[in-house]
């Protein structure tokens, strides 16, 4: 087994060497990336070491924006109902780091997660000295987990999920993954399917629990209409104007959505599209795609003060605003689902009581998407024509939109409680 860890570290090092020219180019272009790189190799500021030394915080790792959302739900609800120890948050992406700083201001620090090589992992653990580590969703880092086990630091997976696609990949190296999973002390999985896949890979059955999805416990927006009015003022959108919000879109999907939007505007001439690419660095590319469809686009950050709202497409180029922007939509669409990317989480638009649509590829959220469709809170579309037909039908029928929105809120309410179940399981590690 030691040989397998060595092989893993060698392959990871080789991959980093091959990727190093791109890393160096990014460091030259962005000074913030140079600063973050020292943290990625486990070199955290001395001031952080001095601040954390007496407290032994909980370390919460959340890769990017979606995982940060789940972590913030847990941390905020935990602190609201009982004392919570100090905690540190780590992310992998810059956008995740920005959102973590805003949504978790009570964190002792927000840092980058170290590259999973022994020296870097040991250096980071020596600085943070955590009492407990929480890995959000499915973060399986062999060297990090091995170092935690050797240092007798308990590790738990929270809001755990394991898609069929990821399961099939891990199964190819099951003997190694089985050994790695033995180093995790607790698995708080979202669904029975997630738990079954984790067990099939070799997780200890006594440590695997089905607790539900933490995001169901996000605060419901009691006054969505007020929030919508606030965003309409911010974005200079007339009160009566209908809006389609397409969140977390990917290359190859923007073109389909824009074609559907062009068709819809034949009947709904005042319809506005808010297009939010999954990765902010794609904004310029998305603007070019919009122009290629003969439509006028404006970046959210470039909206002029006091404008008259005469725009066709708003491209979201800011970080951390999409979840709030769903409130302004008449209808929401979940990206990553018209192409084979497995979809994205549909709970954020549902929290605002909005009808949710998505394409045929929701493999990463198959149970949640099926549940919302069964409850009449979401619609799955097959292609561009189907998307146009369903959106047009809902735009014509405000009563149907309201009914779907209420069904979404009811579906959320029926599955709350994951936070309490998770905290109860975690308390034995911190008491």
Task: Provide the fold topology.
Blueprint: H1 2-29, H2 31-40, H3 46-52, E1 58-61, H4 65-81, E2 87-91, H5 94-103, E3 109-112, H6 118-128, E4 132-136, H7 142-150, E5 155-160, H8 164-171, H9 174-181, E6 186-189, H10 192-200, E7 208-210, H11 224-235, E8 243-249, H12 254-264, E9 272-277, H13 283-292, E10 297-299, E11 313-315, H14 322-325, E12 331-334, H15 347-351, E13 356-358, H16 366-374, E14 378-380, H17 384-396, H18 398-414, H19 418-430
Parallel strand pairs: 1-2, 1-4, 2-3, 4-5, 5-6, 6-7, 8-9, 8-12, 9-11, 10-11, 12-13, 13-14
Helix pairs in contact: 1-2, 4-5, 4-19, 6-7, 12-17
Explain this structure.
- It comes from Candidatus Methylomirabilis lanthanidiphila.
- Belongs to the glycosyltransferase group 1 family. Glycosyltransferase 30 subfamily.
- Helix 4 (65-81) packs parallel to helix 5, helix 6 (118-128) packs across helix 7 (142-150) and helix 12 packs across helix 17.
- With 431 residues, the protein is α/β, with parallel strands linked by helices.
- The mean pLDDT is 90.
- The strands form 2 sheets. It has a 7-stranded parallel β-sheet, sandwiched between helices. It has a 7-stranded parallel β-sheet with strand order 10-11-9-8-12-13-14.
- It contains 19 helices and 14 strands.
- The chain has helices spanning 2-29, 31-40, 46-52, 65-81, 94-103, 118-128, 142-150, 164-171, 174-181, 192-200, 224-235, 254-264, 283-292, 322-325, 347-351, 366-374, 384-396, 398-414, 418-430, and strands at 58-61, 87-91, 109-112, 132-136, 155-160, 186-189, 208-210, 243-249, 272-277, 297-299, 313-315, 331-334, 356-358, 378-380.
- It folds into 2 domains: 39-44 and 51-213 and 416-430, 3-Layer(aba) Sandwich (Rossmann fold), CATH 3.40.50.11720; 224-414, Rossmann fold (3-Layer(aba) Sandwich), CATH 3.40.50.2000.
- The longest helix is centred in the N-terminal third of the chain and has 28 residues, at 2-29.
